[in-house]
Amino acid sequence: MRIGVITFPGSLDDVDAARAVRLAGAEPVALWHAEHDLKDVEAVVLPGGFSYGDYLRAGAIAARAPMMRDVVDRARQGMPVLGICNGFQVLCEAGLLPGALTRNGHLHFRNRDQALRIERADTAWTSDYEAGQQIVVPVKNGEGRYVAADADLDRIEGEGRVVVRYVEGNPNGSMRDIAGVTSADGRVVGLMPHPEHAVEDLTGPGTDGLGFFTSVLKAVVAA
Amino acid sequence: MTQDSATQGLSDLDTGPGPLQHRLDTVELAARTPDVEQPYGELGLESDEYARITAILGRRPTTAELAMYSVMWSEHCSYKSSKVHLRRFGDLPRSEALLVGIGENAGVVDVGDGYAVTFKVESHNHPSYVEPYQGAATGVGGIVRDILTMGARPIAVMDSLRFGRADAPDTARVLPGVVAGVGGYGNCLGLPNIGGELLFDDCYAGNPLVNALCVGVMKHEDVRLAKAEGAGNKVVLFGARTGGDGIGGVSVLASETFDAEGPAKRPSVQVGDPFTEKLLIEACLEIFREDLVTGIQDLGGAGLSCATSELASAGTGGMHVDLDAVPLRDSTLTPAEILMSESQERMCAIVEPGKVEQFLAVCRKWDVLATVIGEVTEGDRLTVDWHGERIVDVPPRTVAHEGPVYDRPMQRPADLDDLQADDPAALARPTTPEELAAHWLAVVASPDGADKTWVTEQYDRYVRGNTVLAQPDDAGVVRIDEETSRGIALALDGNGRYARLDPYAGTQLNLAEAYRNVAVSGARPLAVTNCLNFGSPEEPEVMWQFAEAVRGLADACRELGLPVTGGNVSLYNQTGDVPINPTPVIGVLGVHEDVRTRVPTGWRTAGETVLLLGETRPEFGGSAWASVVHGHLGGRPPAVDLGAERALGELLAALGREGLVSSAHDLADGGLAQTLAESALRYGTGARLTLDGDPFTALFSESAARVVVTTTDPEAVRATAEWTGVPVTALGTTGGDVLAVEGVAELPLAELRAAWSATLPALFGTPEATVGSVPAGTVPTS
Amino acid sequence: MPRVVVDVVLKPEISDPQGQAVLGALGRLGHDSVTSVRQGKHFVLEVDGTPDEAELRQIAETLLANPVIEDVELHIPKD
Question: Full-prediction pTM beyond 0.90?
Answer without folding.
Answer: yes
